[in-house]
Amino acid sequence: MIFDILTIFPDLLESPLNEAIIRRAREADQVHIEITNIRDFATDRHSMTDDRPFGGGEGMVMKPEPLSAALASVNQKNESGRVVLLSPQGRQYTQEIARELSREKHLILVCGRYEGVDERFRSASVDDELSIGDYILTGGELAAMVIIDSVTRLLPGVLGCADSAKKDTFSRRLLKHPQYTRPRVFEGREIPEILLSGDHAKIEEYRFVESVKRTLDRRPDLLRKEFGSFSRIEAKLLRKHQLYDIIKALQEQ
């Protein structure tokens, strides 16, 4: 998969994109990441990529000419990709959207700055707008890194364990169950005995129930959406643990 990033601050991205899973994916040619400096396509002697908004108002707006020229340059090198503008006005990023993007061959991530980008560039060249949350960053670079990380780990062969991505938190609308590792006893607290039983079916049941409990405690909004997706076996388990009616009442609110 190819990621192209359009930014005016390329140095913000270099180090994080050369560590851990992403570094290994790049070395294995599972992903190719290119960073394009929008300033290189500015036409004035000061390499200006922003200007004051027409009509007055606060802040600056990213100019359309350097953005369009940078995008054209990227599309000349690689097959045209899906252009994603990182913006607080975009649809909120989710695991479902990460899976959607992982099916693309080429993503072009445009890092917005200041008060945003000129509307003429956005309307003519942008295929999608994404926001990683209802808060404001100084620019889209951090959001671009979040998207690259979350999409890369979904690509076949990137993670060492094929089931890791399938069973992540948000692989369905449930938070992941509590996790334990060695030592068996830590500061007087033991791990749940069921995890030592060797009964994998019982362990899976335990983990499912704990996952539902954690979601109910921390993100009940997710359970409202997940309620209709429980299988008959899962519903039976939830009734056994007196959770089914609680979640049903939550869904009906």
From TrEMBL:
GO molecular function, one term: tRNA (guanine(37)-N1)-methyltransferase activity
Gene3D superfamilies: 3.40.1280.10, tRNA(m1g37)methyltransferase, domain 2
Top-level taxon of the source organism: Bacteria
Binding, S-adenosyl-L-methionine: G112, I132, G133, D134, Y135, I136, L137
Enzyme class name: transferase
Record keywords, A-Z: Cytoplasm, Methyltransferase, S-adenosyl-L-methionine, Transferase, tRNA processing
Stretches assigned to the tRNA methyltransferase TRMD/TRM10-type domain: 1-224
Pfam families on file: tRNA_m1G_MT
Any single GO BP term: tRNA N1-guanine methylation
Keyword Lipid biosynthesis included in the entry's annotation: no
Keyword Lipid metabolism: no
Any Gene Ontology CC annotation: cytosol
Reactions listed under catalytic activity: guanosine(37) in tRNA + S-adenosyl-L-methionine = N(1)-methylguanosine(37) in tRNA + S-adenosyl-L-homocysteine + H(+)
Family statement drawn from the similarity comment of this UniProt entry: Belongs to the RNA methyltransferase TrmD family.
Role noted for this protein: Specifically methylates guanosine-37 in various tRNAs.
Complex and partners: Homodimer.
PANTHER family in the cross-refs: TRNA (GUANINE-N(1)-)-METHYLTRANSFERASE
Name of this chain's protein: tRNA (guanine-N(1)-)-methyltransferase
Gene of this entry: trmD
